[in-house]
Design goal:
The protein is of the alpha/beta class. The protein is built from ten helices and 41 strands. Strands 12-15-18-21-24-27-30-33-36-39-41 form an eleven-stranded parallel beta sheet, with helices on one face. The chain binds uridine-diphosphate-N-acetylglucosamine and magnesium ion. Uridine-diphosphate-N-acetylglucosamine binds next to strand 1, helix 3 and strand 10.
């Protein structure tokens, strides 16, 4: 195996996306497309990986982090000019350099590896990853001689009507002999329809010098789609969704309607979990075995325990224990931890709170900045009054406490173990262990008064 290097092109503006968001940062199932490429390249043992950034460089570098080195292409003069920016970092290396466009996120590790191997065994100076498509519009066409040797690539905008009929396209990914690549790049000009320095011109240049140039043609048309506009982005999402959902199905997860279920690439789902339609599960999420995720739930960056049930709820940056029950229509906001066997019912909102084992918050409550012990019962309509207009304050409720319906707990406040809060109380002082707190105005009954009032109407 030769030494391997990689250059990922991600400096173009992405004009056709018509977006403020930089093209390669557009997400597919919650992950920016550029990150799919780096992940897929990872298994190919690449010694030095360089990403070329330009527009929105800061944001792209932040997304990629330490997975790559960076060079900046100040002006976007074309893909050959973009590759040239990596010259200082790579020029003197011996080995194979793969160049990948940052807008082809569906190519798999397997295909990259096959391309490397094909290039290395064919001992060519350049190997194009090509594919045959039904509609080649917009792509560069791979032109071959009568005896099928690769001759050059012609861009759609520069192609003659006859060349446009060719359905073998350049996917924008190539393996090059590193030294041959940088030598040839010096000779690329911008004498073409877009007045850009085209990387595909390197093929013709090498060919003219008598070097061996080949194409590795993959039949996975689905992988090679270039995402230039939102139509392609939506199609890519469909392809990725199908690919990931099929993996989960094969692993023993029930996805009732895979076409209508969106599961991100970093989600782990254990066996016998059931995922109902209309659900989005994204980020670094783990769903435990036997869990049931009901229709139209949104779950992001969460751990959901074994045999738990979540129905029609939004759950983010939180942890749900085993055999817990959430929803329908609950909003679990960041930093919530729901204990095993706990219940969060309908129209309950939680935030930065810990809900203990076996505790129930069954209806219409707000629990924020709170710590609830085990087997606590929170009555319908309870509110932790955590914000005084300036600062947030904590509520602490110890094990086995019972909070009656429609209570306001004005934080900071502590409710002791086994304490009982009478319904309708507004509690602003700590309640000791086993105490009953009643904090509501006394009721007075005026005998016969209602009848009198109503009769005079
Ligand atoms: C490119 C290829 C085309 C191929 C297609 C596959 C060229 C000239 N054409 O066309 O043959 O069929 O990909 O999808 O290479 N970029 C830079 N700097 C620049 C220009 C572009 O970094 O100055 C980056 C872009 O961010 C993008 C990639 O290079 O990630 C490809 O550029 P794009 O404009 O999408 O090229 P295509 O027209 O798709
Ligand atoms: Mg493109």
């Amino acid at each position: 195996m030769n030494n391997r290097y990689a250059i990922v092109l991600a400096a173009g503006q992405g004009t056709r996306m018509k977006s403020k968001l930089y093209k390669v940062l557009h997400p597919i199932l919650g992950r920016p497309m550029i990150r799919y490429i780096l992940k897929a390249l990872h298994p190919s043992s690449i010694e030095k990986l360089v990403t070329v950034v330009g527009h929105g460089a800061e944001d792209v570098m932040k997304q990629i982090g330490t997975e790559s080195e960076f060079v900046v292409q100040e002006e976007q003069l074309g893909t050959a000019h973009a590759v040239l920016q990596a010259k200082e970092l790579l020029e003197d290396k011996q080995g194979t350099t793969i160049v990948v466009c940052g807008d082809t996120p569906l190519i798999t590790s397997d295909t990259y590896e096959k391309l490397f191997e094909y290039h290395e065994t064919s001992q060519s100076k350049a190997t194009i990853l090509s594919t045959k498509v039904a509609d080649p519009t917009g792509y560069g066409r791979v032109l071959r001689s009568q005896d099928k040797d690769v001759e050059k690539i012609v861009e759609h905008k520069d192609a003659t009507d006859e060349e446009k009929l060719v359905n073998e396209i350049n996917t924008g990914t190539y393996c090059f002999d590193n030294e041959a690549l940088f030598a040839a790049l010096q000779k690329v000009d911008n004498n073409n329809a877009q007045q850009e320095y085209y990387l595909p011109d390197v093929i013709e240049i090498l060919k003219a010098e008598g070097e061996k140039v080949v194409a590795y043609t993959t039949d996975n048309e689905d992988e090679t789609m270039g995402i230039n506009d939102r139509v392609a982005l939506a199609n890519a999402e469909k392809v990725m969704k199908k690919r990931l959902n099929e993996q989960h199905l094969r692993n023993g997860v029930s996805i009732i309607d895979p076409d209508a279920t969106y599961i991100g690439p970093d989600v782990i789902i254990e066996q016998d979990a059931v995922i109902q339609p209309g659900t989005m599960i994204t980020g670094e999420t783990t769903i435990g075995s036997g869990a049931f995720i009901g229709a139209h739930s949104e779950i992001e960056n969460c751990t959901v325990g074994k045999d738990s049930v979540i129905r029609q709820s939004v759950v983010k940056d939180s942890k749900i224990g085993d055999k817990a029950n959430v929803g329908p229509f609950a909003h679990i906001r960041p930093e919530t931890s729901v204990g095993n066997h706990a219940r969060i019912g309908n129209f309950v909102e939680t935030k930065k709170s810990c809900i203990g084992v076996d505790t129930k918050v069954s209806h219409l409550s707000y629990i924020g900045d709170a710590e609830l012990g085990e087997n606590v019962n929170i009555g319908c309509g309870t509110i932790t009054v955590n914000y005084d207009g300036k600062e947030k304050h904590q509520t602490k409720i110890d094990d086995n406490a019972f909070v009656g319906c429609n209570s306001n707990l004005i934080a900071p406040v502590s409710i002791g173990e086994g304490a009982l809060i009478a319904a309708g109380s507004t509690v602003h002082k700590d309640v000791p262990k086993d105490a009953l707190a009643i904090a509501r105005t006394k009721q007075s009954n005026k005998e016969g008064y209602a009848k009198k009032l109503l009769d005079t109407k």
